[in-house]
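May I ask for a protein sequence together with how it folds?
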Amino acid sequence: MGITSVDICNAADALKGFVGFNRKLDKYIVRFSEDSFGMDVPDDSIRPTCEFVWAEKSGQVMSLSRECLRILAEQNVNDRLNLGDVLQVYLRRTDLPEIVAERRRL
């Protein structure tokens, strides 16, 4: 059974946790409570991971960013994030363009 773009989009929307930009470390970090980031992460940079991975193209058209998924994968908490096999395959398939979809923010 193959993996479809719908499977990949659904997996992206099922990601858990939050992402915020840590100014002190100069990188994005993952937490599993919105309140656990500390003072080095501005409140306006904190987003649910399921929104962090989608980059706005125009209006409601967004692309599923491999770069943002890599940032999450580098955190080494794939199980807690729910970053499973479907998204891992999407990350590896750089020979295919990023998924572009019309979607509403969750």
Notes: The first strand starts at residue 18 and ends at 22. The chain has five helices and six strands. The chain has a mean pLDDT of 92. The helical segments are 5-13, 49-52, 66-73, 78-81, 85-92.
